[in-house]
Amino acid sequence: MKQHYLPQFYLDNFVDAESPPGHAPYLWVFSKKTGAWRRRAPKNLAIKADFYTFYEKNQEKRQELEQALSILDGKTASIFREKISLQKPLDRGERGIVAEFLGRMLLLVRSFRQSVDAFLCDSFSQQMAMLATNPALFEEFRNGHLKPLDDEISRGLKPEDIHPKHWKIGVNQNYSLSLILAELSRVKAKVARMSWTFLVSGRDAPFVTGDSPFSMIDPGRLDSSIGHGLANPEIEVSFPVSSGFTLLATWKTGLPDYVPVRSKTVAKLNRRQVSFARDFVVACKPTFPGDDALSSVDHTSSGGRSSRGTG
């Protein structure tokens, strides 16, 4: 089952308003690997088969996560359309829905999943290598964990047999998704408590997005990966809602619900999106404030900033 890790309704907010008559609306997509722009229909972008699928032991597929996200996306789309686009204040319930959607767009996008899976594989590889090179630790592991499961296998196993160089290590998708979903409620709660303001720009200075649209930085520590979690009192979250609106969330109080911004501010936020994007940037047109950041992209390897701790 093909599933969007960036919802189609969300991508629809960044289509080119000047699409030729008779053509389906399209986005401009910049590949960080090739350095080239291409036009893509929203329905054909950010798709991966069974990305949200859970599997039973017999490999039967369960789609309850996909169904739950579809409901969340529908509610969020209504809020974007009926409140944010009209610059109306959100009530507490609507803020909760948008906060959950932001958590989904941080934790359940492909780039974050890849980072989580890579971390789990690396951690497991290190543990296997440690057991393979430490006989005493190996005996403790064999007697405490393997023997109760299969005594015959445990007796014939030698330390070098479990060295990671002999194995192809992967991550169980059920386990990976379960870890991420456990974090989602915490992210939602923290984002909902922050102060929000929606930055508003015109068609001549559009916001852009990418495959890692939820960005958070400590503006005072741009050269450090430390302290970039949501609990940091100086953290600044930015999330492009559409080409005309970006949500800014901080722990500072007294922010207006909506505030118009100039091209200079749009450029700063767009450069941030380019930086955080792992594989591609999405825009309503191939030129935008801050597009100079595209020229500094290393096309020899895709990948934006490394995965951020949610804190």
Molecular structure report:
By secondary structure, the chain is α+β, with helices and mostly antiparallel strands. 39% of the residues lie in helices and 15% in strands. The chain has helices spanning 8-12, 64-84, 92-107, 110-133, 135-149, 151-156, 173-193, 263-276; strands at residues 2-4, 27-31, 37-40, 47-49, 54-55, 61-62, 195-200, 209-210, 215-217, 236-240, 245-250, 258-260, 280-283. A 5-stranded mixed sheet has the order 9-10-11-7-12. A hairpin with a 5-residue loop joins strand 2 (27-31) and strand 3. It is elongated and about 70 Å long. The chain starts with a strand and ends in a 28-residue tail after the last strand. The mean pLDDT is 90.
What are the main properties of this structure?
311 residues, alpha+beta, 5-stranded mixed sheet, 4-stranded antiparallel sheet, 8 helices, 13 strands
